[in-house]
Amino acid sequence: MSDIPQERRVVTAIPGPKSVELQARRVAAVAAGVGSTLPVFTARAGGGIIEDVDGNRLIDFGSGIAVTSVGASAEAVVRRASAQLADFTHTCFMVTPYEGYVEVCEQLAELTPGDHAKKSALFNSGAEAVENAVKIARAYTKRTAVVVFDHGYHGRTNLTMALTAKNMPYKQGFGPFAPEVYRVPVAYGYRWPTGAENAGAEASAQAIDEITKQIGADNVAAIIIEPVLGEGGFIEPAKGFLPAIAQFAKDNGIVFVADEIQSGFCRTGQWFACEDEGIVPDLITTAKGIAGGLPLSAVTGRAEIMDAAHAGGLGGTYGGNPVACAGALGAIETMRELDLNGRAKRIEEVMKGRLAEMRSKLPNGDIIGDIRGRGAMIAIELVKAGTKEPDAAAAGALAKTCHGEGLLVLTCGTYGNVLRFLPPLVIGEDLLNEGLDIIEQAFARL
Ligand code: PLZ
């Protein structure tokens, strides 16, 4: 890891003067459609800290949206990627291959659930992995329909926009969208009309009924779900939901795809979140945490499904870039050596304990409608006191206060009312607690 002191330090306003200057250049040069949560320009980052160009050190509860689980300058990632950079930057795996790509695919076969024969293909972004999972499932099943879920997020490319549930900001004005995409209910326990305890059984029955009656199971190539829904609000489908959907897929020759782009690679305290209910997906999409910040994604799955696409049917110039593969091997090495699954579980214990305590101490504690998530993927859903009415303004205000104090937090959720915490798994416990202190103070000021 880089030698950045693992200490919060706020020495200017946030953003500081140098960030403000850079932001002015950015506004003039960068397209307005590309946003930033906090326009603080980064100088260096590592462990649980992001240091900005004004010398402020922010506690990182975002990990660049669940990417830098091993930290933003993990020793093994930097060492392996640097060595690869010096050897060669690119050949294109489709032109002349290299070992790192193969080694990443071997690691994916070992780490993903199930002991069947597995193969992988590598790409650059999460959206690209999801697109390719659909191509592979269609080639294998010779069917076209794709089923996705309420509150699901799968990317910003044309097909993945169609797969994504939320209109603003992801889809508005960007259509028409890819056809043959169908959305069905998910077991969102907190908001399920008959209560969380019924959500698993009722939502799966509804989803299956809609698939059967409206699409026809025989027409469905793939069912794609995030085992913990990320952008949609860190929704853990109520127990029983995922097994029921996976079983339905199996019974009907449908490829079951777990999108573990946000939830994978130790984030939830397991290598993959679907392991929580013993799910063995046919295909699994990964990205983000896989390579410690370098752009890499993958589709991994049953060898016979992965081999269904004709030779030459899958690829891309940069997919499985050698530097990104080296980074991935460094990230995976770090996850094993530091037992980051164990660390994620400890982060859950600390965070959920403190958040529950905060809720009980607050005079209007019921504005924290729900505390949920697993491992280092924890969120609180904010609502108006005494109701379940989403309170996006509260989430925004809390995030803003935290930012001003030097704690980077993110929001999410279909209603924009979820405050989410995604610290690097290597964050020190003192920083974790300091971040939680800031959240507690932010509630007091709300
Ligand atoms: N599938 C489950 O979480 C990316 C999106 C940020 P890309 N999530 C962060 C934003 O606003 O663009 C994501 C995900 C899941 C797919 C994706 C897409 O991954 O690498 O952003 O394409």
UniProtKB/TrEMBL annotation:
It catalyses: (S)-3-amino-2-methylpropanoate + 2-oxoglutarate = 2-methyl-3-oxopropanoate + L-glutamate; 4-aminobutanoate + 2-oxoglutarate = succinate semialdehyde + L-glutamate. Pfam families: Aminotran_3. Its cofactor is pyridoxal 5'-phosphate. InterPro entries: 4NH2But_aminotransferase_bac, Aminotrans_3, Aminotrans_3_PPA_site, Class-III_PLP-dep_AT, PyrdxlP-dep_Trfase, PyrdxlP-dep_Trfase_major, PyrdxlP-dep_Trfase_small. The keyword Cytoplasm does not apply. Its EC number is 2.6.1.19, 2.6.1.22. Keywords: Aminotransferase, Pyridoxal phosphate, Transferase. Pathway: Amino-acid degradation; 4-aminobutanoate degradation. PROSITE patterns: AA_TRANSFER_CLASS_3. GO terms for molecular function: 4-aminobutyrate:2-oxoglutarate transaminase activity. PANTHER family: AMINOTRANSFERASE CLASS III, LEUCINE_METHIONINE RACEMASE. Belongs to the class-III pyridoxal-phosphate-dependent aminotransferase family. This is (S)-3-amino-2-methylpropionate transaminase. It comes from Streptomyces mutomycini. The lineage of its organism: Bacteria, Bacillati, Actinomycetota, Actinomycetes, Kitasatosporales.
